[in-house]
């Protein structure tokens, strides 16, 4: 079945000069892993260097806004710091932080050009879903507007597991992996934000 819904024709952008973070929740890991892989795939396809992609996890989606805010602040501090070798983990002072990629590298790094926040909320029997979805949506928008860094909204708010699997490209309907769109959006916004500075 054809549909008019979607991000439109793919655009080509050169992401080779960009530094991007992916922050993802660990709830609903099967779906999350696929979304993260899709985002990373399109970042790499646009030329973003593997070493310039940082992946960090948080327990659940509710933790995403703070993690995005602190990660971006840490990357700014890191860029401004004359003390080379200060790690993002040190700056975040987070006992549970798990940083992969080059956020720990001793070489100076520029602040992130975009951050992709990925979570999967699946509606349950209580009001948890509504409260978390609302708080995270507003929180991520607030971080984006307060900081000026593009925060890509990779929060799936689905009613069933099947809906989540479909949107990660794991269903039977042929729906594509939405994580890929988020990777592309991060590159486009990371570049356009420079033009809009
Ligand atoms: C508690 C909770 C529930 C019920 N469902 C989800 C979910 O579907 N997706 C998700 O990312 N996180 C969920 N969480 C965990 C919260 O986001 C959060 O991690 C905890 O409430 C601790 O703050």
UniProtKB/TrEMBL annotation:
<comment type="similarity">
    <text>Belongs to the DMRL synthase family.</text>
</comment>
<dbReference type="GO" id="GO:0000906">
    <property type="term" value="F:6,7-dimethyl-8-ribityllumazine synthase activity"/>
</dbReference>
<dbReference type="GO" id="GO:0009349">
    <property type="term" value="C:riboflavin synthase complex"/>
</dbReference>
<comment type="pathway">
    <text>Cofactor biosynthesis; riboflavin biosynthesis; riboflavin from 2-hydroxy-3-oxobutyl phosphate and 5-amino-6-(D-ribitylamino)uracil: step 1/2.</text>
</comment>
<comment type="function">
    <text>Catalyzes the formation of 6,7-dimethyl-8-ribityllumazine by condensation of 5-amino-6-(D-ribitylamino)uracil with 3,4-dihydroxy-2-butanone 4-phosphate. This is the penultimate step in the biosynthesis of riboflavin.</text>
</comment>
<dbReference type="GO" id="GO:0009231">
    <property type="term" value="P:riboflavin biosynthetic process"/>
</dbReference>
<keyword id="KW-0808">Transferase</keyword>
<dbReference type="InterPro" id="IPR036467">
    <property type="entry name" value="LS/RS_sf"/>
</dbReference>
<protein>
    <recommendedName>
        <fullName>6,7-dimethyl-8-ribityllumazine synthase</fullName>
        <ecNumber>2.5.1.78</ecNumber>
    </recommendedName>
</protein>
<dbReference type="Pfam" id="PF00885">
    <property type="entry name" value="DMRL_synthase"/>
</dbReference>
<dbReference type="InterPro" id="IPR034964">
    <property type="entry name" value="LS"/>
</dbReference>
<dbReference type="GO" id="GO:0005758">
    <property type="term" value="C:mitochondrial intermembrane space"/>
</dbReference>
<keyword id="KW-0686">Riboflavin biosynthesis</keyword>
<dbReference type="InterPro" id="IPR002180">
    <property type="entry name" value="LS/RS"/>
</dbReference>
């Amino acid at each position: 079945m054809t549909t008019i819904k979607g991000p439109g024709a793919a655009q080509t952008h050169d992401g080779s000069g960009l530094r991007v973070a992916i922050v993802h929740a660990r709830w609903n890991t099967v779906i999350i892993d696929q979304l993260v892989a899709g985002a990373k795939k399109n970042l790499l396809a646009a030329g973003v260097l593997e070493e310039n992609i940082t992946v960090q996890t948080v327990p659940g989606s509710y933790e995403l806004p703070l993690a995005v805010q602190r990660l971006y602040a840490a990357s700014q501090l890191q860029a401004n710091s004359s003390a080379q070798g200060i790690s993002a983990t040190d700056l975040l002072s987070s006992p549970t932080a798990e940083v992969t990629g080059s956020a720990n590298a001793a070489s100076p790094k520029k602040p992130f050009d975009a951050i992709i926040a990925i979570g999967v909320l699946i509606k349950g029997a209580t009001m948890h879903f509504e409260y978390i979805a609302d708080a995270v949506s507003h929180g991520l928008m607030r971080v984006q507007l307060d900081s000026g860094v593009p925060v890509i909204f990779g929060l799936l708010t689905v009613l069933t597991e099947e809906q989540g699997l479909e949107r990660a490209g794991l269903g039977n309907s042929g729906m594509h992996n939405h994580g890929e769109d988020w990777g592309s959006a991060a590159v486009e916004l990371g570049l356009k934000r420079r033009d809009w500075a």
